[in-house]
Automatic annotation (TrEMBL):
<dbReference type="InterPro" id="IPR058923">
    <property type="entry name" value="RCC1-like_dom"/>
</dbReference>
<feature type="repeat" description="RCC1">
    <location>
        <begin position="232"/>
        <end position="284"/>
    </location>
</feature>
<dbReference type="GO" id="GO:0005737">
    <property type="term" value="C:cytoplasm"/>
</dbReference>
<dbReference type="InterPro" id="IPR051553">
    <property type="entry name" value="Ran_GTPase-activating"/>
</dbReference>
<keyword id="KW-0344">Guanine-nucleotide releasing factor</keyword>
<dbReference type="InterPro" id="IPR000408">
    <property type="entry name" value="Reg_chr_condens"/>
</dbReference>
<feature type="repeat" description="RCC1">
    <location>
        <begin position="41"/>
        <end position="97"/>
    </location>
</feature>
<feature type="domain" description="RCC1-like">
    <location>
        <begin position="42"/>
        <end position="459"/>
    </location>
</feature>
<keyword id="KW-0677">Repeat</keyword>
<protein>
    <submittedName>
        <fullName>Regulator of chromosome condensation</fullName>
    </submittedName>
</protein>
<feature type="repeat" description="RCC1">
    <location>
        <begin position="176"/>
        <end position="231"/>
    </location>
</feature>
<feature type="compositionally biased region" description="Basic and acidic residues">
    <location>
        <begin position="470"/>
        <end position="481"/>
    </location>
</feature>
<feature type="region of interest" description="Disordered">
    <location>
        <begin position="461"/>
        <end position="481"/>
    </location>
</feature>
<feature type="compositionally biased region" description="Acidic residues">
    <location>
        <begin position="126"/>
        <end position="140"/>
    </location>
</feature>
<dbReference type="Pfam" id="PF25390">
    <property type="entry name" value="WD40_RLD"/>
</dbReference>
<dbReference type="GO" id="GO:0005085">
    <property type="term" value="F:guanyl-nucleotide exchange factor activity"/>
</dbReference>
<feature type="repeat" description="RCC1">
    <location>
        <begin position="346"/>
        <end position="409"/>
    </location>
</feature>
């Protein structure tokens, strides 16, 4: 068990339960192993990319891609991408040689590299005269994947997890170190990056040590991020205006407390985060949630209250049998107003907002707890509800208002808000009510391994099938010509 030196000389190291710590670290390693592919991936991107999100190059035609398209700048046999993380408007990726790549919006340094030398420059989204330019080309430095300068990172440490927020990127190394860049935003604009010392960090920066023990997992939200150490303690960093940090932040102190801090959660083995709400699973199988909950996305109550906040970690209401045996929680993913829980047996549960079909449940199969507004319209599902008549899944990814799930045979399904084409189902921009297979030429003969969803775009990574595997899939799915 790796023990770290704390930055404060006044802190006395505590006694450690080696059995407990080993249990936590082994559990989290199991989760963390799912972030890195054993084989290089073909990378596919789709959706709306007016802020260079798709990474398909600077041509204006790449601003709207309605079905998954192979990224030509990341050839599988050459670049060898093995992992990626998708933020609100950017993506960071990891190759097999431990290099980081990035593409997307770089207004506040989220890409970790200088893009100022581009011929085409996008207007700052905060500028007074900013407007969508549908006809012009994109910034070629932001719309094309580029490798970061890795000289700041220790040569003997491997990256084991990536995290991408709306305006910040973060990587976790196998020695427990964390590097980050970008900034956090709040309701009033840019909040800052680290305490009152750094407002925007444009290149990778080593975050000062904040735990006595190695960090083993990260979970990024919109403008906050959670960290889990090997002793099962959770830390939070960033904007806390919706109680995302698990503790009350006085407005006059919000810059001075802009660093990772614990807030009382212990014995945790897995963490996850939506845009403004969070989840933590303890070593007994108890799941808690906190943060913004106006559509019941925290899953902590059968009622819905406008503007509601869950101010402290509160037990999530789970269906009978969940967290037991083969029905233990495998992973959690969440968007702005909806949340997904995937079990080890492949079944999928969701809760939250209904307006854009975020929960993936057909309107004629909504549970009795469904919240209706004063006009009798179904608005949200406040309790986790099983999605019926869908495949068994092995991976999930939630964007702001859409989601992608990967079936156990490596096929991607999507649902939710369709106007930005982030569901990848073609020119029809209608919302998709239930998980629907993404079927197109580019991904048809791939086993999808990872998926990530941003604000208005999606990314997936897949491994090509052999000719025999392709034939077997065609028969299984009824795709034979």
């Amino acid at each position: 068990m790796s023990k770290r030196t704390h930055t404060s000389a006044n802190d006395t190291p505590k006694k450690v339960s080696k059995t407990h710590a080993a249990h936590i670290i082994n559990e989290v390693k199991d989760y963390s192993a799912r972030y890195i592919s054993a084989e290089p991936l073909d990378v596919f991107c789709w959706g709306t990319g007016s802020m260079c999100e798709l990474g398909l190059g600077p041509l204006a035609k790449n601003k709207e891609v309605k079905r998954p398209r192979l990224n030509p700048f990341l050839p599988r046999d050459e670049v060898k991408i093995v992992s990626f993380a998708v933020g609100g408007m950017h993506t960071i990726a990891l190759d097999s040689d431990n290099n980081i790549w990035s593409w997307g919006c770089n207004d506040v340094g989220a890409l970790g590299r200088d893009t100022s030398g581009a011929k085409e420059k996008l207007k700052d989204m905060d500028a007074d005269d900013s407007s969508d330019d549908d006809d012009g080309d994109l910034n070629e430095m932001e719309s094309t994947p580029h490798k970061l300068d890795m000289s700041v990172f220790p040569k003997d440490a491997k990256i084991v997890q990536l995290a991408a927020l709306d305006n910040l990127s973060c990587v976790l190394l196998d020695n427990g170190d964390i590097y980050a860049w970008g900034t956090f935003r709040c309701n009033e604009g840019i909040l800052g990056f680290y305490q009152d010392q750094i407002k925007v960090q444009n290149t990778p920066w080593k975050v000062p040590t904040f735990s006595k023990f190695d960090i083993v997992q990260m979970a990024g939200g919109k403008d906050h991020i959670l960290f889990l150490d090997q002793e099962g303690v959770v830390f939070a960093w960033g904007n806390g205006q919706q109680n995302q940090l698990g503790r009350k932040i006085m407005d006059r102190f919000r810059l001075k407390t802009l660093d990772p801090r614990p807030f009382g959660l212990k014995h945790i083995k897995y963490i996850a985060s939506g845009e403004n709400h969070c989840f933590a699973l303890n070593d007994k199988g108890k799941l808690v949630s906190w943060g913004l909950n106006q559509f019941g996305q925290c899953g902590t109550s059968t009622t819905v209250e406008d503007g509601a906040l869950v101010t402290k970690p509160t037990k999530v209401i789970l269906p009978d049998g969940v967290s037991e045996g083969s029905r233990k929680i495998r992973s959690i993913s969440a968007g702005e107003h909806h949340s997904l829980i995937l079990l080890e047996d492949g079944s999928l549960y969701s809760c939250g907002r209904l307006d854009m079909c975020e929960v993936g449940i057909a309107h004629d199969r909504l549970p009795a707890e469904t919240y209706k507004d004063e006009h009798g319209k179904n608005r949200s599902v406040p309790v986790f509800t099983k999605l019926e008549d869908v495949p068994l899944f092995k991976g999930i990814a939630a964007g702001s208002h859409h989601s992608v799930a990967i079936s156990q045979n490596g096929i991607a399904y999507s649902w939710g808000f369709g106007e930005t084409y982030a569901v990848g189902l073609g020119p029809d921009d209608e919302d998709i009510e239930t998980p629907t297979r993404i079927k197109n030429t580019a991904t048809k003969n791939h086993r999808i391994v990872f998926a990530g969803c941003g604000g208005q775009f999606s990314v997936s990574g897949g491994i090509p099938l052999s000719s025999t595997e392709s034939e077997e899939r065609a028969k299984e799915m009824g795709d034979e010509d």
